[in-house]
């Protein structure tokens, strides 16, 4: 069986609703709700000991993309993250799951907020079936180090892409 990632919040290739877009308190000029979308997955291979979730914008004008969300050490019995699970003030993550530092330096979900009038950006949500119960990372670990650990410990993965274009 192939791994599959779905969402009740959006379908693959859809534009993301404003409730998932970065909120104004982050200071980048967007005024969304900054809620992480609901995500569900199935088809994890035998030997899966945990899951990880990431959200990455390969279109960010940084030369290296932009990491919006990273969660590791999700228990292997978990098959869903609730709406707004990336909010560190809402106790919606499963026990043991760990959010790590995104590209604004915080262990939380940070919604899309591309430059005004840029082309639509792709937001790639990925679920990883991981061969380890816990990865050797902490809340302040960089996305590059999390990615390095995932590279060597991923059994399977699935993606879901949302789009967003900022007009002003």
Can you characterise this structure?
The protein has 168 residues and is mainly beta. It has one domain (4-164): PEBP-like (Phosphatidylethanolamine-binding Protein). It is 7% helix and 29% strand. It has one helix at residues 143-153, and strands at 4-6, 39-42, 50-57, 66-74, 80-81, 98-99, 121-130, 154-164. The mean pLDDT is 96.
Number of domains: 1
Q: Measure the end-to-end span.
A: 43 Å
Q: Strands of the largest sheet, in order across it?
A: 6-4-3-7-8
Runs with pLDDT <50, length 5+?
A: none
Number of helices: 1
List keywords for this structure.
globular, single chain, 29% strand, Phosphatidylethanolamine-binding Protein, 168 residues, mainly beta, 3-stranded antiparallel beta sheet, 5-stranded antiparallel beta sheet
Task: Give a short summary of the structure.
The chain has one helix at 143-153; strands spanning 4-6, 39-42, 50-57, 66-74, 80-81, 98-99, 121-130, 154-164. It has 168 residues and is mainly beta.
